[in-house]
Fold each of these.
Amino acid sequence: MPDLFIPKEEKITPAQEPTPPPVAEPTRPITHLSTSRVLPFSTYTEKPTNISFTTQESDEEILLFMRPHFITNITWILTTLVLFLIPPVVITLFGLASNLFPFSLSDIPTNYLLVFLLFYYLISFTFMFSHYLTWFYNIGIVTQKRIIDIDYRDIIYHNVAMTKLNLVEDVNYTQGGFAASLFNFGDIFVQTAGETKHFDFYSVPKPARTTSIIEDHIGGRRHV
Amino acid sequence: MFDTFSLWTFVKFSLAILIGGYSIFTIVLITQVRTMNRIIQQSFASLLMVFIALFLFVTSVVLLIATLVFL
């Protein structure tokens, strides 16, 4: 019995083979990084030359070094200034209006007054130093392989978290408020697929540029 | 006279206890700074932080001795 329908065999020529859809080339240029040194008051350094961390691999290069913007320290700096000014103000007040107080500073032995003043200034200096350390050791590091978040709080607490860049799913930043807009700093949020879901860097300078640099390295565009 | 003597003795030992407590705190501070410096090495700045923490400890010890001996 003859076939009623015989499909024609289509010969696929090499020219007709289905081609994969073209991959869209990134339109945003890769952020260029310049080498610089980290100083005691540095808040944002690209490719720092004088810094390393404990688990750094031999072929691992630091791309970004971040701390909170220095303007975020203004509260404790002003508090320290007030603490340093209290003794001279009190002594002056006692001198100018001694009749207003029930006792005079001359009633206190000089030795005691001296030791008390020295101890007071030691405590004030320690207040300043401990706040400086809290700022100094709150660090975010981006290498070409991973992101490291070092948190240091209340002298006795520190936390070190790191994630590989291929585990990073999303990176975004927020910049809000008068000071943040004026001094160009903001909060960067890195979302990962790892154990630590969120890497948050608060009050980091140049958040747009930082986000852009991290983005350059999470999407396979690893040319710096 | 006895009351005045007691008052200043009380002040002296209170100060000594406070400064002693502060000395212990500075030891914790030195330990923490050294730990953080091991995690992140920042060359000169790291050294400076240890130096300042040590300075605070030495000053507190000197002040403690001065309190106990000279007051």
Amino acid sequence: MFRQVEVQLNRRGRVIHRRTALKAAIAGAAGVLSWRQTMALHAQELRRREMACIVLWMQGGPSQFETFSPLPEHPNGGGTKAISTAVPGIQIAEGLPETAKVMGDVCLIRSMNSKEGSHPRATFLMQTGYLPNASVKHPALGAHVAQQLGSPESDLPEFVRIGNARVNTGGGLLGVQHNPFVVQQAGQRPQNATHSDGERAMRRRSSLLTRLEDASLVDGADQETQAQQSLYATTRRMALSPKMAAFDLDQEPERVRKAYGESQFGAGCLLARRLIEEGVTFVEVSAGNWDTHFDNAERTKELCEQVDRPYAALLSDLKQRGMLERTLVVWMGEFGRTPRLNPRGGRDHYPRAFNLALAGGGIRGGQVIGKVDASGSNVTDRPVGVSDLLRTVCHGLQMDADREHLSGIGRPIRVVDGGEVIQEAFTG
Amino acid sequence: MARFCSATILAFLLAFTPASFGAEASDGNGQPTVSFELDVQPILTAHGCNAGACHGKQRGQNGFQLSLLGFDSDFDYAALALNARGRRVSAASPERSLLLRKVIGEVPHGGGIRIAPGSDDYNTLLRWVVEGLPRRVENEPRLSRVEVSPSELVMKPKEQRTLQVTAFYSDGTQRDVTLRSTFQSNLSALAAVDRQGQVTSGPLPGETAIMARYMGEIAIAQVLIPLANQPPPEVYAALPRNNFIDDLVWKKLQTLGVLPSESVSDATYMRRVYIDIIGRLPDAEECREFLSDSREDRRALLVDRLLQRPEYADHWANKWADLLRPNPYRVGIKAVLNYDNWIRDQFRRNRPYDEMVTDLVTARGSTWHNGAATLFRDRREPDELTTMVSQLFLGVRLECAKCHHHPFEKWGQDHFYSFAAYFARVGHKGTGLSPPISGGEEIITVAKSGTVSHPLTGEAMAPRPLFGDAPELGPDQDPREALADWMKSPENVFFAQVQVNRVWADLMGLGLVDPVDDLRMTNPATNPELLAALGEHFREAKFDQKELIRTIVGSHVYQLSSIPNETNVGDRLNFSRHYRQRLRAEVLLGAFDDITGVRTSFSAMPVGSRPNQIWTHRVESRFLDTFGRPDPNQDPPCERVPDSTVTQTLHLMNAPALQEKVVSDKGRAAELAASDLAPDEIVEELYLRIYSRNPTEEEREIGAKLLAPVEGEEDKARRRRNTEDLMWALLNTPEFLFKD
């Protein structure tokens, strides 16, 4: 029988509590647990630790009809044509020709559904799995991923949010240390990471600050003062870490940058890959605004142009570097759009049937899960709820979706409440 | 494992188990003796079966669900006795019942072994099954209350004492329920409690409370571990006393053997009251004026002057805006702007708190004319109003009771929906919400009819207050008026207490009760006498907030230093020293603007507006977002996060918007550098503006040396650069960021 052995490894696979592991192996009922088995456990732990996640957040609620679920034959399709993809039998909307080429790695879900049709509530639901609630601060998925898979000793933050999305989920009851580090614009060092008057001024001022602090009247033994000073030190360490170079996209070859395209979203995707390479666990990149209440056709065309090439480039790049297997990439927004066009040529909010896309992290690409009816109004096969989706993501990342955290008043809150893993989404 | 036939067990049980409840009334002549509510449920609760982490959680555990902590006896009876019959309980062979086999671990049980076979609890459960699973026994009394004794434990470090819990019933009987009670310490490190009610104090002095719960009823024991070497009583008698606050705080400190810190200098006091009363720092001139004032009562005179300043209203209204003001995108710009104006007006006019609350909860009319009516545009349903009103004005959190019995309190769904019934007749006319613009006008009316019904029974609830008696409702009366009358009646001490606690927390850095609006028996005040006295004082002062502030900042306790002495270094609760607080986002940004002489401009606000005058948190400001303000995008809006973060630190260090203020040609640093002031005068000016104090000799020397001319160097640019550097450095220290 296998005994549970707690083996802790850091990101590079160095065993932190090796002595404990060895002891356990020896004590494990007279060698029941062989050295090889112990190493197998290490490998498993190491693999789990290496898992990472990128969420491409389509802020505003992307139209399913203009992305992955076109309806060329039906008036609700709005005249958007369907194109063939690398996978025979799967068609997507004409605005995504590059994505069509990598469809072999992508698993589409066309039967997503929820009940939340307002941006803030639906965003909160998709990102945390729960509805907003006064007494419990539900953590974002990214915070859970950072908490379970991240390594606290890293110079870089574990949970990075790129782009100015109207999203404000964070560490919640897991604590402020799991809040996302927000990068407003990819392609630049994070906001305020460099001193606006230059590094020389920064050093000059810092040393003056240190001199004054030594002379200060404030009692340094005080808890708040100490916390503030240690935070100041951590922040300076991050700002001066060589790993901050991950944020500089011009270190990438021209060819790679070109592949990701010119858009902000493209730069965000490239940055996401660079951060994951440097050991960041969860990166969210947002694109939008997909809230197309007016001129849906024209605006989704622009949005697709913005998103198509970077998405395809990200998947190919990750694959080429052998990172796709351990990086789960989720393309999603808070809900879909109404099947019928409104009088302004727009589509309104529609949570009853919408789509999203999964790739990497053990996902079996080249398949479609779920069906809607001919008008695109109702899910007719394999409905997927928000908890199902989040549980599936946790499964792909080899996380414990049932881990419970206590709220302020001691109420246990699971990472994901209910739901079932979409088993067929995965290989093997 | 040995198997007995059930007859043998029954005989054994009747002969040897201690009397269960019904047994006192009947004597084994065929009448059931085990009561489900009084015997079985307490056992399940005591062993944690129906805890929130086990079968008590919303969907139960592995298909078996009980009500949380046994608040719903009918539900639990159905779950055990009726659902999946023959599986959980078996009348034919009682000891084969899944219930009994699970709890002793005879079959695999996720919760492990909870009860030992053959124990009293096991036997009681078994007997209940043997007797045919009665829902009730004859003449069953009700549990009316529990008591814990002793209710106050004064302990030495590392000592052990035992608590006893007694239950009292409606028929006048009582019994010892210690072993079936659950215990919880508010601070286990200080005093831990085990399942038998044995309290073990830790190595450190301090105080905490221990909650004993038995079937929805709760009793509290206070634990006090005084310091080993108590100072003599004369020391306390000699402490300065400005008003009743000092009497009550010193009294508490004496029981703990803790001595208060020294009192603060005039400079620190000045900075404190400026920040606390008007939300800004004194400028250099104001500092000099006060620091050269030698009158005996200069501190009190300063407080009087500050209370008259116009900035008072914006600073305090800004706090209430956090609690009340909704997102204008959802509720409408005009309605929210009106609401914001209404809130500010209350503080400009120093409206008595009871009148302000009455106007708010009984508001009617157009949201375009009466800002207070926007409350009912924002919170449209009786249940939303119930949670908000009870929390804000009574310090009672009822959200839990909406769906199940409050696990730490006496509130159940009956309380919740009877209270909600006060809002049953709030009517809406005009244009409702239509986000993202919601610009329409809406009229709040009192409808002719309207009811709130209980979600389980469907019964229409009559309006009823949470406790005490409410004035009778006249036929044409707005039920909300009766509610307001009840809320502010002298019998309802919570009304004044939650507000004094809020103001106390703002001024002292921590509430007497924390969180500030969670006044429950299981979250007792650290100094209940003081909370009561402040509440009474507030009522006697006719709910005048300025008078309340004057009293608190006039106490000697408010004037204590934050620097600890040997006895109070561990004190985080009893105000034996001042607790430092990071400045609130709006205050911090306002201070930045004042110090650098460069104002931040905000969209949709007049030029020169201060950050705490902004009418909605939707007005963009990266600074305010970084340093924490409620996010009205969230419903409910998030609380302010007081923690410092990496992002905040980076912002202060490097943000271009702040750097520009420091290095601006039109800014204070440029102005000082270009002036005729000598180097040490510039240093003094900066210390007064940033720290509200004069520099020490050492600081003056460092600064003056930095700014002194150097031979052979171009002086002007250097002096300017070094003035900017000094300003930047001071703005990046904790002494600036915190109220000391």
